[in-house]
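Input chain follows. Return C-alpha cells only.
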Amino acid sequence: MSKILIIGAGGQIGTELVLELRKMKGNDTVIAADLSDECPVLIKNGPYVQMDVLDREFVRDYIISQQIDEVYLLAALLSATAEKHPDFAWKLNMEGLFSVLDLAKEKHIKKIFWPSSIAVFGATTPKVNTPQKTVMEPSTVYGISKQSGEGWCSYYFDNYGVDVRSIRYPGLISYKSLPGGGTTDYSVDIFYQAKLKSQYSCFLKEDTLLPMMFMEDAIRATIELMEAPSEKVKVRTSYNLAGISFTPAQIAQKIKLHLPDFEMSYTPDFRQKIADTWPGSIDDSQATKDWGWKERYTLESLVEVMLENVDVSLLDKDV
C-alpha cells in the first residue's frame, strides 16, 4: 500500500483531507505532519509527525526513510496573514515546494499535490467566468507566490517528468476547522457568530462577489484529481475550480431564513482591497473535461449543513 504524507495537516484543508484519505486508504498509510508538537485532536486516529517544512534536511530524510509515495504539500501562509509578514510568507510558500519538487525529481516521490488559489488572478483578470488561461497579475504576496509556484510545477513536469497536480481553490467553507487567515474567511466565521451572537460584522463590503466552495466538494475534487490517470491531467500549472459565487449580503440573507434574529453589519478593512482584485466567478470547464469534475453543493445546502454542524465551543479551544 502506498504511503501518503500530508504536510500542513492541521490546517483547514489538511484536517479534512487527512480524515477522508484515511477513510479511503486506511489510517496507517496516511501520515499527518504539521508544525505543532501535538497532533490536532480531529486527526489523532492515525500517525502524526512534527515537521517544519522549512527544515529541508528533516523533510528529505523523513520522506526517504519512510518511503513516502505521495505528498500533499498544504503548508502555507494565507492571503491576509501573508500581507502582514511578506518575507516569511514568500519563504514558507516557496521553499517547501522546492524541497518536495526536488525529491520527486530524484524519484523519491511518485506524485505531489500542491494547492494554488484564485489569488493568482489580479485586477486585470476578467472577473466573470475567469478562464483557465488568462491574464494573471496578482497584487498580493500570497498570489505572487502561488503564481510562481504554478510556473515551477509546470517546469518540473515538462523538464523532469515530476507528476505534480494542482487546483486553484476558491474560498473554502468548513465546519470542522476554524478559519486560517484568508480573505474569504468571513464565509466561515459568519456561521460561528450567527449561532453565538446572532450578529456579525463583515470585513468585506456587502456586494463583494467571490467564488466559494464547501469543503466537502474541495476535498472530493482534490482526491479525484490525484486519482485520475496521468494522461488525463492536461494542466500542469493549476486547474480552475468553481463552486458557488455569492456576496456577504446573499449569504446573510440565507442565514436569516434559519435564524430570523441574525443581523449583519459591514466594516471593510485591508482585506477588501485584496478581494477587489479577485474574480467573481470561475470557468472550470477544463477540469470537467479532463477528469470529470462537478460541484454538488448549492448556497442553500451549504448554509443548512454549516448551521447544523458548526460547534461554537471550538472558538474557545486550541484545535
